[in-house]
Structures are given as structure tokens and as C-alpha cells.
User: What shape does this take?
Amino acid sequence: MRLSKAASFLLCQSPLSLSPLIRSSNAAAAKATRPLTLTALPKRTGQTPFEEEILLQDDNKDNNNNNESHLSNKKNVFYPVSPGDVVAEGKYSMISKLGWGRNSTVWLAEERGRWPGRGRWRNFWQQKQQQSFVAIKFNNCNVDQDAIRHELDMHQRLATADPTHRGSPLVRRVMDSFEIRTKVGTHLCLVYQPLRETLGCYQWRFPGGRIPIPLLKVYVHALLVGLDYLHSKCHITHTDLKLDNILVSFEHDSVLPERARQLQHSEQMFQETPYGRVFQSYSDFGPLKSYVSVPMITDFDQADDGDFGAYPIQPDVYRAPEVLLGWGWSHSVDIWNFGNLIWTLASGADLFQPSHPTAPSTYDPVIHLAQMCSVLGFPSPALLKQRAQSGAWKWTPALENSKGELCTDACSFYGGPHFDPSTGEFLHPDAVPSPQSLHDRATFVGEEERASFVDFMSKMLTWDPAARLGADDLSHHPWLVLGGRIK
Assistant: This one.
């Protein structure tokens, strides 16, 4: 089996040898979780839907939220793409839609070779030419062009900062870009390496959404190497690390071509709308052939290229205390974020679940901070006093909070203050659950390595951002060495 470029690079340069680790972690995972089979993705309840669960539903004409057609209007125009379309002056041929978002659709495409000659010679070159596939993001014509240019700038930095760093292949960057001009506007299109699926989908190939600990260690190490590249060489803070923004590579060279051939020779479903045909998304590439996949950090549209920031960032459940409390943030905010993400992958559930008691879909900063106090203990009065003396950081322009108020600081944005700066007292004591430490919560890890796991997590999940270890130091933590068993 041939490894991808990222896997091969990691194998050669990582202090943890990727191939033996994956083989041994596969064996440990199979032993610890039998029966464990390589199956297609299961349907889930109460989870973010997979792409195949938000497809067109011809038998429900009133359901307009299963594809991007309900978002298309005069101010929000998707570029109409169909299988077989050729774009970028004949460079790419469309195969099928992979997915969609509020401001774009993503398509699987084949890069067309430019074969010399005619007749038999042209056929000869076609046979010799290896198929090359890409994923193309077609941005809406009304998308903020400055935001896209910012993303392109981030990708330029990712590509050139230090290509020799072992983390460079572990971040997905833009391979190409082009524009399509229409009567309604210009669509900026970004071309990426195609990857199998998000880590959020991948985790549910395992029972309970728990990636076996030996295999998880390999992935965590790889992602830390990638994070170190972002922070130390590119000077980029991702700010939006979540399961949907980490993708895994194809485990074998045959998976993508086989699926592409199936799609090219099958009739693809679509729905006629006033804005043109909207095609069904096909993002399931079938059962895994092995676990030899490499995780890659993606989606840099929210990335920050400075060493310090203050404005609201991060997914709700992974938001760091310094963001909520207005202390300002730097690269260490990604470390907190990543620690939470590891917990989700290991346990199958988020460490913090900061929903409002009477409105489960509403994020509640008070509940979030209260749960942090329960798990981590209360922040020290000295830390709170030190941060209070440094003053409240403000941002511009003003941002609208959940109540519709325009805010320029975290205190007003997140409904603060939450602590008394003079005493360090939490101002919402009734919201704090009974104390339950990381060790108490980590029942999904065997007793023989739970202490090491908790020590590893405690190096990331701290109130004080300055106390968190950097990505490179974390990548050498003893817990990442294989040897422990899953409970």
C-alpha cells in the first residue's frame, strides 16, 4: 500500500514512526474493541448530520433546507455547476458535488491532462497520464472578496513559510484559484487536494464515536506537528479548530478513483429550482480499507495572522476562558481548543456542554465558565487580578451579540463581568456543578495510563494561557508513546 505524501513525510521525519505506529495501533484497537469492522458510516441521532443526510428529498417538497436552493436569492447567488462542466479554461472537469455551505458549494473534479498528438498517440498519452482529482470550492458571487483574499494570503504563508518543516504537509492549502465572471457577479474558486471526510465523520466509524486510544495518539501527534508549523513558522492562529475543520486523507490510492468512476457512470439526482438545477451531494466514499489515513488541518478563512487578538473566536463548546473574559488571546488559544477536541475524540462526547438549561440550542457563557470551575477548579485570585490590571481589550468595529447589542469588548459581548476582580469570586456560584476533576471524568481511559492522559490534558486545559505547553512540547509528551491499553 502506498502512503500519501503527507504520510510518507511524517514517516520519514517524525520521531514517532507513522507506519509501525498505525499498524500497532490498529492491532491494539481491534483487540480492545472487538468486534470492530470497517463499515460505512452509521446513521446518528442527535449529531450534526452527514452530507448524505442533508440531500435532496423529492418526496418532501416542503422541506427546503436540504440543499442550498433555499439560500439562493438576488443577494446570495450560487454558481450553477453540473456534472461534466469544464471550468478554468478547460483545466477541470466536474464529477459530482461533495457538499455545500451558506456561501459556497464544493465539487469533486478531475484535472484534465493536455495530451500531445492525435489519434493513437493521444490515446497512448491518456493511458500514461495518471488521473488527478481535486476539490473545488465555488464561492458565491456576493461573498466578501476581502475575506477570500485574506484566506488566500493565509494559504500563501502556509505554502512558503518553511516547506521543510515536518508539519508543512499536514495542513491543507490552496493548490490553485481562478475566477468565473457571470452577469450577476464574479465567483472566486479555490482548488484543494481532495480528502476523504471530516474527523467528525471519521470518529463515528468507531463504536460510540470513540477513536481507540492507540490510534488517537498517532493522529494527535500528527496534528500537534501541524499546529507547531502554524504557530512557530507561519505565525498563524487558526482560531476555529473543530472536527469539521480537520479532514483525513484517503487510506489507499484506489479509493478516490474507484468512487469517481462510479459517479461518472451513474445518474446523479437533482432538483429543479427557479435558480437552476441543484444536485445531490455525494461525500461518502464507502467503507474504510484500513486506518492508514493522515489527519490534516484545513479551513483558514477565520485564521489570524497576528500574534495577539481580542475579538470573539472559536466554536462555542471549545471556547477558551481568555476569549470569554476579555483577556486577549494568542497561539495558546488553539491549544485549549485542541485539548477539548482530543477529549471529544477519545470519549465520544464534549468535555463542556455549555447550553442554556431552558434552551438547549442556545450557548450560555455563564454555564460554560461554571463547568470550567467544576472541572478545573476556580482560577486563582492572583491571575484574575493580574488580568484585570492589564485592562479590558476592545475591538473595532462593534459586533452584535446574541441579544442584538453592539459590543466592542468581551464583557458586554458575553454578558460579563463573571468574576469579582478584587476577590476572584465567581459571580454565579449557583450555576457551578459539583466538582468533578479531569481524572474523575476520564473513565474511558484505562487506569494504567489515566494519570498520564490527565497530565497531558492538564498541560492544555488551564485558566492561565501562559501556563499551556506549546504544540512542539506537547508532541513529546510521554502519553503519546504507545503502550497503554484502552479500558
Q: What stands out?
A: The chain has 15 helices and 15 strands. Confidence is low (pLDDT under 50) at residues 1-21, 27-64, 124-129.
